[in-house]
């Protein structure tokens, strides 16, 4: 059975709650990896994994433990690219699937936006996490679990 891996450092609480409920419902081994303690309910299926505070320590730990077919939930595009290269499936907390067909373009756009911000351009931040995002994520996670759990 594939496992769920969550890049928990930037995972919205509402998405975390959806993941916990889904893991419990389906009996899917799920790991929340962060450089701090993530508040989680006591569970047989859901486990926290706190790593050192070093730069990208959580990302490195996730990549080291991922296996082909696992699902990584993250919005970190370089981490997503590494996971895809390792054979994992990747989904954002907004329910967007990242794969070989779209990850490079997404990373290039992220790099372009970083260059704009570095030059003083005000590009704004990501939009807030909406009820629509929550629904899209919950539905996408349920579809993945139905196919893989």
From TrEMBL:
Pfam families: DUF188. InterPro entries: UPF0178. It comes from the Bacteria. Transmembrane segments: none annotated. Belongs to the UPF0178 family. This is UPF0178 protein ACFOEV_00820. It comes from Litchfieldella rifensis.
